[in-house]
Write a structure and sequence with these properties.
Chain lengths: 109, 122
């Protein structure tokens, strides 16, 4: 069982927006403003999409945005494109360790 | 830009020690400012952080694996390594190495190596 809880799957049509949630506790997500998000296509390594809750690395489209409220962080993808179909993982510092969410499969219909 | 590449045996027998190396190119481990992590992904499952090392040799491990894990660094070869002892089938996974930003509580992994599948089987 993963430390952070994510929905197993979400879906949306091209052009729509989807939001993926990541729920933890006050010991991880809620305790620090430092959640990161990763995109993983099948058979590929994860790729950093968001860090420090809402910052985008260079090269990541501004369609990807992050936010946090209390113990829940969220990744929103607007203007969905076919290439956004992938697994997404959240990550947080948790004091004595680093924890990931269980992952969410995004399907672009 | 910095690139990482994992290498090591793809098959390990139960009870033996899994050994992997991550070679860093396009940047020096010794330059500081970053930690260097190992992360694994069980087949069809999520990600699990194993531990990280600084170029000075300071390490920190996931408490759930701490008794079996050793991460070391060889700055002369610009490599860092993972050893996981007493492996079982539950250690079958894709193992990734990743550069890690870790300022107290701030943490992210970028970039990642391509990953290497290690199967534990007799």
């Amino acid at each position: 069982q993963s430390a952070l809880t994510q929905p197993r799957s979400v879906s949306g049509s091209p052009g729509q927006s989807v939001t993926i949630s990541c729920t933890g506790t006050s010991s991880d997500v809620g305790g620090y403003n430092y959640v990161s998000w990763y995109q993983q296509h099948p058979g590929k390594a994860p790729k950093l999409m968001i860090y420090d809750v809402s910052k985008r690395p260079s090269g990541v489209p501004d369609r990807f945005s992050g936010s946090k409220s209390g113990n829940t962080a969220s990744l929103t993808i607007s203007g969905l494109q076919a290439e956004d179909e992938a697994d997404y993982y959240c990550c947080s510092y948790a004091g004595s360790l680093i924890v990931f969410g269980g992952g969410t499969k995004l399907t672009v219909l | 830009q910095v690139q990482l590449q994992e290498s090591g045996p793809g098959l390990v027998k139960p009870s033996q020690t899994l050994s992997l190396t991550c070679t860093v190119s396009g940047g020096s481990i010794s330059s500081g400012g970053y930690y260097w992590s190992w992360i694994r992904q069980h087949p069809g499952k999520g990600l699990e952080w194993i531990g990280y090392i600084y170029y000075s040799g300071s390490t920190y491990y996931n408490p759930s694996l701490k008794s079996r894990v050793t991460i070391s660094v060889d700055t002369s070869k610009n490599q860092f390594s993972l050893k996981l002892s007493s492996v079982t089938a539950a250690d079958t996974a894709v193992y990734y190495c990743a550069r890690t930003v870790l300022v107290p509580a701030r943490v992210w992994f970028d970039p990642w190596g391509q990953g290497t599948l290690v199967t534990v089987s007799s």
